[in-house]
UniProtKB/TrEMBL annotation:
<protein>
    <recommendedName>
        <fullName>TLC domain-containing protein</fullName>
    </recommendedName>
</protein>
<keyword id="KW-1133">Transmembrane helix</keyword>
<dbReference type="Pfam" id="PF03798">
    <property type="entry name" value="TRAM_LAG1_CLN8"/>
</dbReference>
<keyword id="KW-0472">Membrane</keyword>
<feature type="transmembrane region" description="Helical">
    <location>
        <begin position="35"/>
        <end position="57"/>
    </location>
</feature>
<keyword id="KW-0812">Transmembrane</keyword>
<feature type="domain" description="TLC">
    <location>
        <begin position="36"/>
        <end position="149"/>
    </location>
</feature>
<dbReference type="InterPro" id="IPR006634">
    <property type="entry name" value="TLC-dom"/>
</dbReference>
<feature type="transmembrane region" description="Helical">
    <location>
        <begin position="6"/>
        <end position="23"/>
    </location>
</feature>
<dbReference type="InterPro" id="IPR040327">
    <property type="entry name" value="At5g14285-like"/>
</dbReference>
<feature type="transmembrane region" description="Helical">
    <location>
        <begin position="107"/>
        <end position="130"/>
    </location>
</feature>
<dbReference type="GO" id="GO:0016020">
    <property type="term" value="C:membrane"/>
</dbReference>
<feature type="transmembrane region" description="Helical">
    <location>
        <begin position="77"/>
        <end position="100"/>
    </location>
</feature>
Amino acid sequence: MENLFLFFSMFFTIYLIGYFIVFRNWSPKIRPEAASCFISFAHGTPAVFLATSAILADSNRGFAAPNTEPENSVLDFSISYFTMDLFHYLAFCPGDLLFIGHHLATLFVFVTCRYLVSHGACAILALLVLAELTSACQNAWTLARARRDDVVLAAKLSRLLLVC
């Protein structure tokens, strides 16, 4: 459980840095969404590498295989991120039921795998890798869309990513 608190503190700090420093000149209306994207960037790419490494390090890759410590660490890392981002959505976007539901469902799967059954992390982490590979594009599109009306490059990037 100590990893959860450490990782959650890290994502909370990254969120605050994004909100108060990185995006301080952005409109208060879009700053929370930008800070959410900022922690998503901080989660997505490392999660891909950490999960891939944990999967490759485990010689017992069956669906029902017991979790290894590296797999549990990746699950804690992701549980912490999804919890922090869920708090963001509950505070700033309580009507966004799609993202709130997505975060709750993901947390249910990760927490069950990590703390209730302690098996199956290999399959869950393989799905995490696939999901997070698209996360950077989603975040870039979200940030570009948020600034498309006042930044020409953001408008072009928003249109380009919408086509992809």
